[in-house]
Amino acid sequence: MKKRPKKVRKVDLRKIDPGAHPLCEDKETAQLRTREFQKKMYDLLYLMFAHNRYSLLIVLHGIDTAGKDGTVRHIFSGANPQGIRVFSFKKPTTEESRHDFLWRCHRHTPESGLATIFNRSYYEEVTTVMVHPEYLDEQRIPDELKKRPDFFESRFESINAFEKLLADKGTVVIKLFLHISKDEQRKRIKERLENRSKNWKFSAADIKERRHWDRYMDVFEKMLARTSTPYAPWTVVPADDKWYRDYVVSKTIVERLERLAMSFPKAKRQSLSVR
């Protein structure tokens, strides 16, 4: 008997306004709350380190200039560097291309008590490659596998299984999709060109990839629909306004960590004899 395909709830990013502020309209209030959330987050991360049963994986995803670097810089600047590691995954190396697409990220998932941020991640091996299937040629995958009609669907399933594996070990997986508008991306690229202090951020590839905007939106919608699960849900963050992005990100992390059953370990009392 054939299995019925699972129903997947469709995601339409066009119906989500990247400039909206549904959770907090006032900028000053949001910035104040963000600072409060940050302090609470640092306390919770310290507790998680002491409790040493859970770990935290934060996955940041979004189109070029969506603000992934800025999110890491603004939200986690005051955290204990010993407890948080950040990995930014670029184009796969020759060694990485010889392994499965999850291998290079799996090696850097957090151990118990620690937190890890993936600035770009294994999702690039689905979204970017769906837009540019020619990139698969560098991954040494047999032609008959690459040509399978369910090739990318299989990758989505692999990601879900991978994240379930992490969740079953006690890793809290928080996935944040930074959603910006095409007009906002244009402004940010222009600023990188005109502002000397931001020239180093500019890449001609940003302009080249911008031509594929509609295709990226289609792919992102598929990604969000196929890989948002009860154990690793996606949060779509309206990110045109950085102050609101920071508010939603910090709020999301704190509310998730607060649901964990954590406590500080009690000191073991040992009988001491005085001689």
Explained architecture:
This protein is an alpha/beta fold. The protein has a single domain, classed as 3-Layer(aba) Sandwich (Rossmann fold). It has eleven helices and five strands; from the N terminus they run H-E-H-E-H-H-E-H-H-H-E-H-H-H-E-H. Strands 2-3-1-4-5 form a five-stranded parallel β-sheet, sandwiched between helices. The relative contact order is 0.21.
| Strand composition percent | 5-15%
CATH topology name = Rossmann fold
Query: What number is the mean pLDDT?
Result: 92
Measure the end-to-end span: 76 Å
Global shape: globular
Please name the CATH architecture.
3-Layer(aba) Sandwich
Count of individual beta strands: 5
Order of strands across the main sheet: 2-3-1-4-5
The helicity comes to 40-55%
Number of domains: 1
Largest sheet: 5 strands, parallel
Helix and strand pattern:
HEHEHHEHHHEHHHEH
Radius of gyration (CA) equals 21 Å
Q: Give the class from helix and strand content and strand pairing.
A: alpha/beta
Name the CATH superfamily assignment: P-loop containing nucleotide triphosphate hydrolases
* Number of helical segments with 4 or more residues: 11
- Uncertain regions: pLDDT < 50 for 5+ in a row? 1-5
Q: Return the CATH class.
A: Alpha Beta
